[in-house]
Amino acid sequence: MTGHRFTRYVPVPEQGKGFGSLLRIFLQLLTYTSGDATEALDWMHQLDREYGLTGDEYGMADFLQELQDKGYLRADEQDPAVLMPTARAEQGIRQQSLEEIFGKLKRDRPGQHPTPHTGQQGQDYSSDIRPYDFGDDLAQIRLTESLRNAQVNHGIEDLHLQQNDLVVTDREYAASTATVLMLDISHSMILYGEDRITPAKQVAMALSELIARKYPKDKLDIIVFGNDAWPVEVKDLPYLQVGPYHTNTVAGLELAMNLLRRHKVQNKQIFMITDGKPTCLKERDGSYYKNSWGLDRRILNKTLTLAAEARRLRIPITTFMIAQDPWLVRFVREFTETNAGRAFYSGLNGLGQYVFEDFARNKRKNVR
């Protein structure tokens, strides 16, 4: 028998940039340009000239043609000269966001949220064992432990297996969850030379892709809020843009709770990604009451009232504040205490990890 042979590792010579690596850059740029393929391609041409993204055998013209051939770009129906991202490109952006933000997480069986409760409806087995009861699934029987019990109870010379020798392991009960993700698209999300909306969009896309793959029975609604609040589809996330809006947190919370009321699940939660304080209310006549300086008690009181209402409905609100001004921290602390929720002052770098950790945590916490 020859066995294993070990030889010196000789690395494969690095080849020039191909379609796969260029596609990752292009999809990233599509997020920054809010889906403007022409602008994203212009940026790629500039990067190619400066850093040599392509080689002699494969250039930007080849990459553009392959994008169209593989269904990532299509011609606009009204203006064939304009290229538009396709559904495949949108899927690729979400998948890439998932890999970038949650790529280090251990992959588990799809559709399961571990909770402290056990039963027969889950997929993963717990570490605890108990005696077999009539009606238990035979697949739950722990054969090794059951045979050991038989040996202890009856001896090795008269080994036979009886019902009182059998032990089983319960499966972890799997809970479904309804989540509303609120994204702030007020003007402050691009102020002061810092792009805050792009990381927020990436987190939303990663979370939506994670739920679609791993927790398909869960419900995810995504809403944006500025002067008003409205729901958006997952496919629209790459194209979100900041507008000349104030921050109507009240409208966002009202819409989020209305959406959650429609879902007949026990676990419900709201994630709110924002960088500012509430500065706007919509009056009954359709006009807006605004105070750009913020900390207006009329606006804050209405916001805190909704936080308290969500607490009564057992809907925790997790606030991801991507700004750390002291007066903003004080407001978020008061808001969080009123709701008995959680708050993270994460900046931009750790936003995705914080979102996932709290997403998983709330599955365990809220099942009753």
Describe the 3D structure.
This protein is of the alpha/beta class and 368 residues long. The protein has three domains: 67 residues; 54 residues, no CATH class; 190 residues, von Willebrand factor, type A domain (Rossmann fold). The chain is built from ten helices and 13 strands. The protein has a six-stranded mixed β-sheet with strand order 8-7-6-9-12-13, with helices on both faces. A three-stranded antiparallel β-sheet has the order 3-5-4. β1 and β2 form a beta hairpin. It is flat and about 85 Å long.
SSE order and pairing:
Blueprint (H helix, E strand, L loop, with lengths): L18 H14 L4 H15 L8 H10 L3 E3 L7 E3 L1 H16 L15 E2 L5 E7 L11 H12 L12 E6 L4 E8 L12 H18 L4 E7 L3 E4 L16 H13 L5 E8 L5 E3 L5 E3 L6 H16 L4 E5 L4 H14 L2 E3 L6 H16 L2
Parallel strand pairs: 6-7, 6-9, 9-12, 12-13
Antiparallel strand pairs: 1-2, 3-5, 4-5, 7-8, 10-11
Taken in chain order, the helices and strands follow as HHHEEHEEHEEHEEHEEEHEHEH
**% residues in beta strands:** 15-25%
**Total individual domains:** 3
The overall pLDDT average reads 81
Provide a concise account of the structure shown:
The chain has 368 residues and is α/β, with parallel strands linked by helices. Helices cover 39% and strands 17% of the residues.
